[in-house]
Write a structure and sequence with these properties.
0% strand; globular
Length: 177
């Protein structure tokens, strides 16, 4: 890799790592696994960087690498053998935002119970704010699959939150194309 490509990769990785880590956390439910997922994704991105710079597809590729790495790591036998305790893995804000933290933890716990494909579509659509088309491109599927997985995921998320004691179910505004 040329020095200019390497510098461009370092700049992109430095700027995108935090966002990719948050996305990975929402998919995996564990900060440590999220770090591993992002590291795997950045290795894949580094290898493909010269090819991606010609097409300019590195943001999409990076998200897709995070999603596939998270799903792949979740399938590994050693991940199933050790229960991951989310306590202590959460990095709290120093300000007193107790209710926000409680709500966030409740949503993250409910999100973690969703099947992987539904969880990924909900995270990409509503956390990363990707359109249906962009989400389909990241996941390598049709827009219809994104719409159905998102709808099922939101329904399941609402059910889990209502069961957890949320009085008013979360509503999502109009769907973006």
């Amino acid at each position: 890799m040329r020095d200019s490509d390497e510098q461009a990769f370092v700049e992109f990785a430095s700027g995108a790592a935090r966002s990719l880590r948050r996305t990975a956390y929402l998919i995996t439910g564990d900060w440590h696994r999220a770090d591993d997922v992002v590291q795997d994704a950045l290795v894949k991105l580094y290898v493909a960087w010269p090819r991606l710079t010609r097409s300019g597809a590195f943001p999409t590729y990076a998200r897709r690498a995070v999603v596939t790495s998270a799903i792949d790591q979740g399938r590994r036998p050693w991940r199933r053998e050790h229960a991951v305790d989310g306590a202590g893995a959460y990095e709290p804000d120093r300000r007193d935002r107790t209710q926000e933290v409680d709500d966030r933890l409740m949503i993250i716990a409910a999100l973690a119970e969703l099947p992987p494909r539904q969880r990924v579509t909900v995270v990409l659509r509503y956390y990363d704010e990707l359109s249906v088309d962009e989400t389909a491109q990241v996941l390598g599927c049709t827009t219809g699959t994104v719409k159905s997985q998102t709808a099922r995921g939101l329904d399941a998320l609402r059910e889990r939150l209502v069961a957890a004691g949320v009085r008013e179910p979360i509503t999502v505004g109009e769907d973006r194309p």
